[in-house]
Amino acid sequence: MAVEPVRDKWKNPITEVTIGALKEEGGTRASVVRIGGETTMPFLHDDGGMPHEPVVAMEVWDIEPTEMADELRKYYSDVYTDPAAWAKKCVEQYGAAMICLRLMGTHPDWGDRDAAHARGAVRKVLDAVGVPLIILGCGQAEKDNAVLPQVSQEAKGERCLIGDITEGNSKTIVASAIADGHNVICEAPLDINIAKQVCILATDMGIGLDRLVAFHTNGGLGYGLEYAYSIMERSRLAGLGGDKMLATPIIAVMSTETWRCKEAKAPESEFPHWGDTSRRGIAWEALGATTYLLGGTDVLVMWHPEAVKTAKAFIEKMMKK
Amino acid sequence: MALTGLEIFKHLPKTNCGECGFPTCLAFAMQLAAKKAALDKCPYVSDEAKSALDAAAAPPIRLITVGVKKPFQTGNETVMFRHEETFHRPTGIAVTVSDAAPEDEIAARAGRIAGLSFERVGMQIGVNLTAVRNDSGDPAKFAAAVKKVMEVSQLPIVLTAGDPAAMERALEVCKEDKPLIHGATAATLDAMCALAKASSCPLTVSGGSLDDLAALARDAAAKGVQDVVLDPGPRGMNELLRDVTQSRRLALKKNYRPLGYPFIITAAESDPVMEMVEVGVFIAKYGGIVVTNAIEKWQMLPLLTLRQNVFTDPRKPIMVEPKLNKVGEPGRDAPVLVTTNFSLTYFVVEGEVEASKVPSYLISVDTEGLSVLTAWAAEKFTPESIKKALESSGVSDLVDHKKFVIPGYVAVMSGELEEETGREVLVGPREASGISTYLKTVWKA
Q: Minimal Cα distance from A45: which residue of B?
């Protein structure tokens, strides 16, 4: 007697979001990235479809990342004083599908640079690479409100993914994104209700659901991964089940989050029982990334080229039916 | 799947004799359903009814125990997603030892495996099992390797051999320790079941599809082997994910008995990072035991950390011990910071303090595992509880100043806190990410 399988059938697909605009669409990108559209929990191809595979973006800063872990420096120290060269290396050598430019230099603690500086950095990266851009502010609301509208204007028509907006700070950034044709990242602090609320606030201002991506402020492996993982699963289940405000694609940040974890970077000389540092950091980032993919992540932002390689190979294996 | 009172009632004699201590059979059935009475209180229940009720009361995924000295258990899972309740039994990690290796290498490797254990967030996390593989094809060598492994390691053993003769020899050496027999295929089911029965050890059955696995598990049960673990064989991890998911659904949603057993997965990826990632998939998704060659510390620390994360009970926040903690080697002018004992809060704060490279004292206040704002709202993080924590920490003997830093989110309590403690309260940043800058630029003893 054959086993009769139990299928999970879902009524509401995850929204499809397009990042990047080609020339004929008013941008200058050589490629665009489409995410979302799932009608199943991750990689369960018998239940439903995953029309777009998850993608890996790589993180670039507008300033020299003076506290970068040694294991990353090995790969980036030749380029990290120049965002254009850094972005180019990520795309050409490490196969980044997108560049995630973090405007860290605008942070009051990191030099407090102005919007003109940020515009310059965005322009450089746009000119240097043909892949779509994710642009992150420094995370300080006042500064982001001063900088991101300018940046949005600089990249007008390029359909970037800009963020983050939060429950308390959405208006300025959403308004610019609407005016300049960008997508927006909705951030919520490991809280599914706030995640929904941020999405509602954004759509109330008139931005389409097909322009929103959720960020659940995930930590790295070992640092609250289980919270973010379960929030991703819960929101994805709710989204597939019909809650449109939770049916957005999900972005997870592995780069900075992994590389602030002690286990990813502490030298073997100090922690001999943790094993080879150069492999451990890669493992830390790769394992966190693949676990979040199982939770429903559509876009990974990553840093270590070897971890990127693993994540991409993993996606390829899991997308096979 | 638990039965309702009415379903149980159908199997009772319906005589209302009252000998069970309840006035009617229906009342007794209700008590049975609530697990407040045992079926053996009824002297008249038929054997058929008894076995039907026993079977229905059994958990949808059978609990399997491997080993005696450090027993490992898997099974009894109740949900598809951890947020629905919790995942109950952490995936067992089994690391391989080949019997084809020289004897001293076997011992060294088994010792290394037993030593793969780390302390993390106040818990000890480690590898659970040693999987001894009969790569040599020689039954005597297999038995000798098992013996060697047992001399150096107390971990329960997975005996991986396809040849029943080799399995028999190995069981002679270790059956008292209840190893997992890994295992039977369609071709060897009779012989392996006989061994499992004679030794009372759990048995894996291996098949290439869920249909095969269900048929083999049913046959094993018919031969008297109830403690079964399902082995889907080496396949792509996408296919394995599909099958373990389907199997758990069938067990939980349909109470489908032939697949109501834990899974054993053998990681087959050859790249050392990808192999680790493959193990990770079946930690997150429904693996009972995962067998891997990954013996390096840099592979195992992340995997065991992931397992700790995934199997944390989402209904109970994990807490750290409320106490005085040193970050670095703080001197007499070192900053003193207070935070809650919710482990995520605590470890994030500790990480940021550490990243600042400013040696500090960090006091975890007993907030019953609540985060800063929640604890404040619930009146667990109050001037009184902070005062108590400061006093019992003995920090005033360790520093020369009378200052301490509170999280920015509870700035509102600073006045009352100064009165309460007689110390100078400094308001730190709201987010942990600001701590490093704060300690470097704002803090002064």
A: B242
